[in-house]
Amino acid sequence: MALTKSEIPQKAFDAAKAYEQRNGGCPQCALAGIFDALGMEEDAVFKAAAGLADGIGLTGNGHCGALSGGVLAIGCLYGRERKDFGDIMKLLKANILSKKLHDRFVEKYGSCRCADIQHSFFGRFFNLYDPEEMKAALEAGMLETCSTVVGETARMAVEIILEERDGQSGQE
Length: 172
Known about the structure:
The protein is 64% helix and 0% strand. It contains eight helices and no strands.
């Protein structure tokens, strides 16, 4: 049975959140939720997202991995193809939609930087390479909090993709 337009973003949220709780790896979990909701499979893109977790390589110093996953999904659908590599204008659609996702994300979370988001929720950043820090992060509720961020970001990305697909996207 096909999902309604309002059910598709919820499916992305539910799947992405569940994937983050079970598997970890925020960009891959966001992508998997988005792909599931949209009926897509892009294994090379999924694999390429592996190093983008927790602000790139678990550093916290880059943007949220879930946001990376959302941007990668937008790129899969609206990005420039290799055959158009010489045409810089072919980048425009993916950049406009990615900016829209970025802006919605920052409006909701106050920043796109992983460490800033952790500070806003937990009052600190956790070094997930350190077993004691990992334990402290889990005790602080990081799994529940970050899985919700992953789900919300997947939902936002799918909403933007559906708006574009249905011709409802205005530039924000």
